[in-house]
């Protein structure tokens, strides 16, 4: 099959990364989790004791660090300046701050440029919040994946059971609603469905059903 790009956007906990990874596996494409890049910058800002409200200092930190995304056995591994931070970027501390860091225009510009470069040779499944609208406006397949807040909280709740990120379902629901609000309300590249994206509501769909719908969209375009 000729290579093309797939953009998968949507709110927190909609299942984007699981779905994107499976679609990439089926097509032999490369999966890129852009949320991990914003998390990596947030981790570095916290690690270096930079004030997250000091946008210039945050932008300098982002510009001075090296982020690498490497395919691993259980998904994508994330390295910052050569150190594996794949699990460090998933902590509550990072999750609580990431939407604030992701709202800084200079940080977005840096990461969006990197993301565009990664997708230049096609064959990429990229998930995030602004992929179909800003990063890859020419992506051949665009999906806006969503689900009810309750369902998204339940899925995340189950995912983090037994890990350091475990919390209550109510806390999870609150966190997801708060991140939705910040991501949808920010000035730069807010979370919004691209006009030409296909909306998929996964509230009552299984993972294989969602994956199949996206593969069908891919078949339709060839
Ligand atoms: O996808 P994930 O939930 O890991 O993303 C973490 C945060 O990174 C999101 O809540 C959002 O604030 C930010 N993000 C973004 N643009 C993207 C991907 C993620 O602003 N393309």
Automatic annotation (TrEMBL):
Main EC class the enzyme belongs to: transferase
Catalysed reaction, written as an equation: dCMP + ATP = dCDP + ADP; CMP + ATP = CDP + ADP
InterPro entries (alphabetical): Cytidylate_kin, Cytidylate_kinase_dom, P-loop_NTPase
Domain Cytidylate kinase residues, every copy: 6-218
Known EC number: 2.7.4.25
GO-annotated biological processes: nucleobase-containing small molecule interconversion; pyrimidine nucleotide metabolic process
UniProt keyword annotation of Kinase present: yes
The family this protein is said to belong to: Belongs to the cytidylate kinase family. Type 1 subfamily.
NCBIfam families cross-referenced by the UniProt entry: cmk
Annotated protein name in UniProt: Cytidylate kinase
Organism: Paenibacillus chitinolyticus
Gene responsible for this protein: cmk
């Amino acid at each position: 099959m000729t290579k093309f790009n797939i953009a998968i956007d949507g709110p927190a906990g909609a299942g984007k990364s699981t779905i994107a990874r499976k679609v990439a596996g089926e097509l032999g494409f490369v999966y890129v989790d852009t949320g991990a890049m914003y998390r990596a910058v947030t981790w570095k800002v916290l690690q270096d004791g930079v004030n997250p409200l000091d946008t210039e200092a945050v932008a300098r930190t982002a510009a001075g660090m090296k982020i690498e995304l490497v395919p691993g056995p259980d998904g994508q591994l994330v390295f910052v300046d050569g150190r594996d931070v794949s699990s460090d970027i998933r902590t509550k501390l990072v999750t609580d701050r990431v939407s604030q860091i992701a709202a800084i225009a200079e940080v977005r510009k840096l990461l969006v440029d990197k993301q565009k470069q990664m997708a230049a040779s096609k064959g990429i499944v990229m998930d995030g919040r602004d992929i179909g609208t800003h990063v890859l406006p020419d992506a051949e397949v665009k999906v806006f994946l969503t689900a009810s807040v309750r369902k998204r909280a339940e899925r995340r709740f189950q995912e983090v059971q037994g890990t350091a990120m475990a919390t209550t379902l109510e806390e999870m629901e609150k966190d997801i609603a708060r991140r939705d609000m910040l991501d949808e309300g920010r000035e730069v590249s807010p979370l919004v469905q691209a006009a030409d994206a296909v909306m998929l509501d996964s509230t009552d769909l299984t993972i294989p059903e969602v994956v199949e719908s996206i593969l069908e969209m891919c078949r339709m375009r060839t």
